Amino acid sequence: MGDSGEGLIDAEARIQERIDERAAEREQRLKQMHIDPARHQEIESLRLALSQLQQQAEAASHPVRQEQLAMAIKDIEKKLDDLGYTQKT
């Protein structure tokens, strides 16, 4: 029975090592592409917010809420444009 516990610990350690390796690889790719990690994080955050707002806009039925969401979407799209991000459709 003791061996199965060791196997789980080994598996968790290997998983954590792989997560760390992938994070290091991602960071290295960003450096090679000359992308500022803070800028990249801001773009990813804005993309996520845009996606969530678009989903809310599709589900919204009240005209005032639809207008609010449209304005918020336009604002985020402008911020993404200012950061030089081009949306892929």
Describe this structure in words.
This protein is mainly alpha-helical. The protein folds into two domains: 34 residues; 54 residues. It contains three helices and no strands. Helix 2 packs antiparallel against helix 3. It starts with a helix and ends in a 7-residue tail after the last helix.
- The helicity comes to over 70%
Number of helices: 3
How many structural domains can be distinguished in the coordinates? 2
Taking pLDDT < 50 over at least 5 consecutive residues as the criterion, the unreliable ranges are none
Tell me the series of helices and strands, N- to C-terminal. Answer: HHH
Number of beta strands: 0
Question: Which helices and strands occur, and which strands form pairs?
Answer:
Blueprint: H1 2-32, H2 37-59, H3 63-82
Helix pairs in contact: 2-3
Outline:
With 89 residues, the protein is mainly α. It contains 3 helices and no strands.
Which keywords apply here?
mainly alpha, flat, 2 domains, 89 residues, 83% helix
